[in-house]
Amino acid sequence: MKLYGFPASPNTWKVRAAAHQIGVPLELEIVDLTKGAQRKPEYLALNPTGRTPTLVDGDFKLWESSAIMQYLGSKKKTPLWPDDAKARADIARWQSWHLQHWSRGTTILIFENLVKKIMGIGEPDAKALAQGTELFHQDAAMLDAHLGRHPYLVNDTLTLADFTVVAPLFHAEPAKIPLEKYGNIKRWFGAQAALPAWQETAPRR
Ligand SMILES: N[C@@H](CCC(=O)N[C@@H](CS)C(=O)NCC(=O)O)C(=O)O
User: Fold this and answer.
1) DSSP label at residue 154
2) 64: containing domain
3) How confident is the model at residue 1, as a pLDDT?
4) Which pLDDT band holds residue 204 (cuts at 50, 70, 90)?
5) pLDDT at 37 over 80
6) pLDDT mean across residues, the chain
């Protein structure tokens, strides 16, 4: 299977880390977002949204990182995507929350504080930063409370939900994501950051 993606982006990194943990080999095809490769016709033929990542498995093309992770989890028996309807719904719940809520604040902070700097496209916008920070705190408070009661998001064990929700935090430092007061999130993040799956798929700096 081939994954088209950009290694430093959280959406690509988490798919590669989950694939590593599951034990499903993925061949990486780099789509250089800094050069606009996601808007080239040959890439748009795979993924008309012009975003990364995209999985290609034979003649099956799949975009949206959560769907890709679930597909990889179904390819090989794994505790990350247990064969149980309630556990799967619970994982899908956290992935949905990530897409609709958690990724909003974190994406703004990553874009304003990190992407703009790397791309040389100007200074962070104060209004956007304030909005991103407010959204982040709203969601972080709930996440921290959940992680105060549980070591992981679903069934007290590592699943695709953790791989999904933790991903933006790998850029917490340069993106100035304000994690300071969230001790439970920091403990949970630290446990995952120590996994070979994340370390061995980390983008080369
Ligand atoms: N909901 C999508 C989001 C994909 C996404 O926004 N990818 C970013 C990189 S993290 C991208 O390709 N951006 C390029 C662009 O928007 O031009 C997913 O989970 O796969």
Assistant:
1) B
2) 2-75
3) 98
4) confident
5) yes
6) 97
Q: How far apart are CA 53 and CA 41, in angstroms?
A: 16
**Which of 44, 46, 51 best tests ligand 1's pocket when mutated (most atoms within 8 Å of CB)?**
51
User: Ligand 1 mean position to 11 CA, how many Å?
Assistant: 7
Q: Are residues 125 and 184 in the same domain?
A: yes
pLDDT digits (tens, 9 = 90+) for 111-144: 999 999 999 999 999 999 999 999 999 999 999 9
The proportion of the chain whose per-residue pLDDT surpasses 90, expressed as a percent, equals 99
**205 has a pLDDT exceeding 70:** no
Instruction: Report the b/e string of 85-122 with b at 16+ CB within 10 A.
Output: eebbebbbebbebbeeebbbbbbbbbbbbbbbeeeeee
Structural domain count of the chain: 2
- Report the Cα 180 to chain-centroid distance in Å: 21
CA distances from 6 to 52, 99, 100, 143 (A): 7, 19, 22, 27
Which atom of ligand 1 is found nearest the CA of 36? 17
Same domain flag for 89 and 66 = no
Query: Could you tell which of 4, 11, 16, 34 is best to mutate to test the pocket of ligand 1, judged by most ligand atoms within 8 Å of the CB?
Result: 11
Closest atom, ligand 1, to C-alpha of 99: 1
CATH code where residue 13 lies: 3.40.30.10
Pocket (CB within 6 angstroms of ligand 1): 9-11, 33, 38, 50-52, 64-65, 99
